[in-house]
Amino acid sequence: MYGNTSDTNPWIFGYGLNYIFSSPASDGKLEQVVAGFDFNRPGKRVDALMRTHGLISSLCFVEIKTHKTLLLRDTKEYRPGCWMISADLAGSVAQIQKPVQKALSSLRSKVELLDDIGDPTGEVVYLYQPKSYVVIGNLAQFQVPNGINEEKYGSFDLFRQNVVNPEIITFDELFSRVKFIVKRSENEKE
Questions:
Q1: Which DSSP helix (H) or strand (E) runs through 122?
Q2: Which of 3, 19, 123, 142 has its CB 3.0 to 4.6 Å from that of 113, i.e. a possible disulfide?
Q3: Domain assignment present for 185
Q4: Are strands 143-144 and 147-148 parallel, antiparallel or unpaired?
Q5: Residues in CB range of 182: below 8 A, 6 or more apart
Q6: Mind spelling out the 3-state secondary structure of 61-111?
Q7: Residue 29 domain flag
Q8: CA–CA distance, 55 with 174 (Å, rounded to integer)
Q9: How many domains does the chain have?
Q10: Containing domain of residue 151, as a range?
Q11: Is residue 40 part of a domain?
């Protein structure tokens, strides 16, 4: 249903996430190393390093899982009415927070972009507490034959509403935003 859109339609992860048009930060590839590596430490990669478009461009980090990734542990309640988030969701939050922190400590607040051979492109992006996103799972996981399991959905939604950065969005929510954007764009052409 969702397919591989990352490099062919990067606007979906840009404009679709925050209604601010974004594009890949450099060379058209979404996945980027954001902090270097040496023999003693691994580099930090993000699934999508984006930049906003406007008078001033800012960096934005995106961690992308799949629409099938579980949002909650599917075993049993942690406590009555409380369900634990999945290891994949918890790991995704940590996985995006670390490269953001590493980028803040290793990059300057003003970054002049270079092309693939190291020449300046003339583009500048800024790095001040960048926005980050985790795109994961699908809200259909909370559907049961006769409606929505509200306790499970509530456990997930309370968790994500209280995580400030990254913003957690499901693939179906992103897909709905994209459909709205495309429909609105088509209506404006008429």
A1: strand 120-135
A2: 123
A3: yes
A4: antiparallel
A5: none
A6: EEEECCCCCCCECCCCCCECCECCECHHHHHHHHHHHHHHHHHHHHCCCEE
A7: yes
A8: 26
A9: 1
A10: 11-189
A11: yes
Q: Of 127, 131, 102, nearest to 35 (Cα)?
A: 102
Rounded (5°) CA angle 64-67-70: 95
Please check whether residue 35 is in contact with residue 62, taking contact to mean a CB–CB distance below 8 angstroms: no
Which residues in the chain come in under a pLDDT of 70?
1-45, 184-190
116-134 pLDDT tens trace? 788 888 888 888 888 899 9
- Alpha-carbon distance of 2 to 148, in angstroms, equals 22
The answer to whether residue 95 is domain-embedded is: yes
Spatial contact of 17 and 133, defined as CB atoms under 8 Å apart: yes
Q: Are 121 and 155 in contact (CB under 8 A)?
A: no
The stretches of the chain forming alpha helices (DSSP H) are: 11-18, 87-106, 150-161, 171-189
Strands 48-52 and 22-24: antiparallel
> Is residue 58 a contact partner of residue 130, using CB atoms and an 8 Å limit?
yes
Kindly report, residue by residue over 65-99, the tens digit of the pLDDT.
999 999 999 778 899 989 999 999 999 999 999 88
pLDDT digits 0-9 by tens, 86-95: 999 999 999 9
